[in-house]
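2024-03-11 09:14:02 INFO worker-7 job=invfold-0412 stage=load source=structure_tokens
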């Protein structure tokens, strides 16, 4: 059947029967735009073989993304990709005031996620390796302040969020640990690009449309750098000279 075979938006109120029968047999859930469906994400925690969780547009879906739920969402995305979980255009989501022991957090593209401070994740300490909130405009906080407690962060995704930081702060607390740094489009991110001289393991650096400035020569020590986007910034310098130092560079964006 085609995608238009069943249209269940704007129906009378519906509810999901829980607990689900034979949840281990369920591999795909597509309830997108069922705007009168009353349910919670906890209903799917028992679905250990779930490959897709598509509930975008379910405006009645709200709640707190507990540590088990964050881990659940992150694991599906790690195995099957970002689009395997769709939580866009839902009701308001929040995160508990304190979360511990998480290693990876992938809550990208949840436009209704409200998180005013990153201190929520300080309790994860050195366990936390990955933190991705790209395209979550209602997420804010200071990433350098979090790095002070979580100094093993290797992947930080904060593009198109309200997260703030200085390059100097990130470099001071994380040193050579980070491999992926995405701070673009709306992120309150500033500082001199030369501060990243200490972050010698960075492979992906995206700071386009931020207040970051300086000369590209400040990246000469990033010998593993593969992807660089410095578009719409005040960064200057020679791309050809950078290429002679960063021999692994595969893709560069430096428009405007």
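2024-03-11 09:14:09 INFO worker-7 stage=emit residues=256
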């Amino acid at each position: 059947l085609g995608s238009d075979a069943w249209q269940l938006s704007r129906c009378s109120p519906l509810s999901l029967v829980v607990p689900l029968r034979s949840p281990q047999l369920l591999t795909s859930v597509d309830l997108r735009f069922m705007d009168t469906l009353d349910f919670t994400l906890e209903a799917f925690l028992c679905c250990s073989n779930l490959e897709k969780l598509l509930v975008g547009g379910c405006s009645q879906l709200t709640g707190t993304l507990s540590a088990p739920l964050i881990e659940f969402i992150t694991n599906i995305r790690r195995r099957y990709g970002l689009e395997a979980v769709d939580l866009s255009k839902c009701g308001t989501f929040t995160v508990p005031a304190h979360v511990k022991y998480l290693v990876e957090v992938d809550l990208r593209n949840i436009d209704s996620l409200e998180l005013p401070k990153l201190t929520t994740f300080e309790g994860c300490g050195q366990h936390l390796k990955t933190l991705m909130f790209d395209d979550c405009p209602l997420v804010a906080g200071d990433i350098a302040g979090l790095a002070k407690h979580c100094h093993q962060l290797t992947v930080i995704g904060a593009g198109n969020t309200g997260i703030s930081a200085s390059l100097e702060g990130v470099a001071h607390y994380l040193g050579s640990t980070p491999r992926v740094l995405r701070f673009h489009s709306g992120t309150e991110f500033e500082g001199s690009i030369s501060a990243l001289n200490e972050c010698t393991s960075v492979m992906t650096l995206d700071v386009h449309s931020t207040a970051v400035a300086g000369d590209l020569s400040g990246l000469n020590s990033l010998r593993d750098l593969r992807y660089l986007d410095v578009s719409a910034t005040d960064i200057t310098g020679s791309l050809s000279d950078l290429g002679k130092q960063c021999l692994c560079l595969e893709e560069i964006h430096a428009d405007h």
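2024-03-11 09:14:09 INFO worker-7 stage=report msg="Confidence is low (pLDDT under 50) at residues 1-6."
2024-03-11 09:14:10 INFO worker-7 job finished
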